[in-house]
Design a protein that fits this description.
Elements (H helix, E strand, L loop, with lengths): L7 E4 L5 H12 L3 E6 L4 H11 L4 E5 L5 H15 L4 E4 L14 H29 L2 E6 L3 H4 L5 H21 L4 E8 L5 H4 L3 H9 L9 H11 L11 E4 L7
Parallel strand pairs: 1-2, 1-4, 2-3, 4-5, 5-6, 6-7
Helix pairs in contact: 1-9, 3-4, 4-6
The structure holds NADP nicotinamide-adenine-dinucleotide phosphate.
NADP nicotinamide-adenine-dinucleotide phosphate binds next to α1 and α7.
């Protein structure tokens, strides 16, 4: 039997990049997986179904910046699947710029998607997990949530906030069989880093002892451990996956 057989999972921002890799990994591990996406398309439905058949992979419209979308999306999941065992907060955005020139909306949009969205999702799913006395919550932060980064005050604040949010919830639900952890990637090859100018890429590579960017699959393998039953004694932790760029 596969390790996550019988379990139901939700991954936000699963249309591409790290989210797609995590959701696909969860299907391979035997879970029934809801791919949270901003916009469901027939092509996406087809790709998800092709991973594991209709029963294993489902597409769920879920815009994490919208409270209504979170309410409706999670209600639909619970109505159809009856439970939720795993939540992965992966959806994230950047709006980079120096703080002195940063507009309120650039700060609030990033906080809204990267921190308030996960807060609302956690609040909603943890009630269902408490009934089952079991749950695994993992949020995708970033190394800059610990180190800070010039030009990313909004993003770094949201990712640091995700760590503090996760630690606090971890303490609140520890006796209920629910763990709450964080994976903090460094530079990973996805669309998010694909837009970096060549000079920035080269400077980044010089700071990574392993000598390359990470892959989405390397992030999903870190998540794989934290969502396993065997990780039940690990909670409130941040697992850094950054090629040695920052040893924190
Ligand atoms: P990506 O390729 O840009 O993908 C981001 C995903 O999030 C997309 O599927 C996007 O949906 C979704 N998303 C954005 N806003 C959303 C919203 N309001 N509701 C639902 N989904 C939303 O990024 P990635 O590199 O895979 O990043 C995934 C996570 O890892 C993010 O939290 C990011 O901050 C974090 N991270 C990435 C790196 C890196 O180097 N790549 C490093 C550290 C941390 P659409 O497809 O609809 O746009």
């Amino acid at each position: 039997m596969k390790p996550l057989a019988g379990q139901v999972a939700l991954v936000s921002g699963a249309a591409r990049g790290i989210g797609w890799s995590i959701a696909s990994m969860l299907i391979a591990e035997g879970a029934e997986v809801w791919f949270g996406v901003r916009k469901a398309t027939p092509e996406l439905e087809e790709s998800v179904v092709s991973l594991g058949g209709e029963r294993k992979g489902r597409v769920l419209e879920l815009d994490v910046s919208s409270p209504d979308s979170i309410e409706a999306g999670v209600d639909r999941l619970l109505n159809q699947s009856g439970r939720i065992d795993i939540l992965v907060n992966n959806a994230g955005i950047v709006h980079d710029g120096l703080l002195v020139r940063m507009k309120d909306e650039d700060f609030l949009d990033v906080l809204g998607t990267n921190l308030v969205g996960p807060f609302r999702l956690m609040r909603k799913v943890v009630k269902a997990m408490m009934k089952e006395r079991y749950g695994r919550i993992v949020s995708i932060s970033s190394i800059v949530g610990t180190t800070g980064n010039a030009g990313q005050a909004n993003y770094a604040a949201s990712k640091g906030g995700l760590v503090a949010l996760s630690k606090s919830l971890a303490l609140e639900v520890a006796t209920r069989g629910i763990t709450v952890n964080v994976v903090a990637p460094g530079f990973v090859e996805t669309d998010m880093t694909g837009i970096l100018p060549e000079k920035v890429r080269e400077a980044a590579l010089e700071r990574i002892p392993v000598g390359r960017f990470g892959t989405a699959s390397e992030i999903s393998h870190a998540v794989r451990y934290l969502v396993s039953r065997e990780a039940g004694f690990v909670t409130g932790q941040t697992l850094h996956v950054n090629g040695g760029m920052a040893l924190v």
